[in-house]
Amino acid sequence: MGLAMAFVTVNLGAQQGISGIGFFLFGLGLSDLLFQKLVGTVETVKGFSKIEIPILSNIPIIGEIFFNQNILVYIAYALVPIAWFVLQKTTIGLKIRAVGENPEAADSLGVSVAAIRYTTVIMGGILSGIA
User: Fold this and answer.
1) Spatial distance between the Cα atoms of 84 and 82, rounded to a whole number of angstroms
2) Chain-centre distance of CA 24, in angstroms?
3) Separation CA 80–CA 127 (nearest Å)
4) Is 91 exposed, middle or buried (0-12, 13-18, 19+ CB in 10 A)?
5) How buried is 39 (Cβ within 10 angstroms: 0-12 exposed, 13-18 middle, 19+ buried)?
6) pLDDT tens digits for the chain (131 residues)?
7) What's the rounded Cα separation, in Å, for the pair 10 and 99?
8) E strands, the chain, where?
9) Rounded to two decimals, what is the model's pTM?
């Protein structure tokens, strides 16, 4: 889905917001249809089990929100500073920001605008799929 979204937005020049909603609805319908055809019934899929951090999960309100979640939430917590570091402190992050702010200037400096756009949209699709 991420590759298809990248093709539509980068090559065809569609707006990401509008095409993103379309791909979301298409994926929702397709997954339901395939699940009905392959499995025969619509069932809810069990998620990952929650990981409770011993002392911190007992804090009122905050403990339940932050310290009693499944593994994907903790991975998301770790990805925030990693994404910040990549975008702010690395060459690829500079290229991503340059392509986002001024693609013509980035292209004149030899940055492959299409490759950066494809990569970022596909990475966004991967992270959305994990969520």
Assistant:
1) 5
2) 12
3) 12
4) exposed
5) exposed
6) 888 888 898 889 888 889 989 988 998 899 888 888 888 776 677 778 888 888 888 888 888 888 888 888 889 889 999 999 999 999 999 999 999 999 999 999 999 999 999 999 999 888 888 87
7) 12
8) 51-52, 68-69
9) 0.69
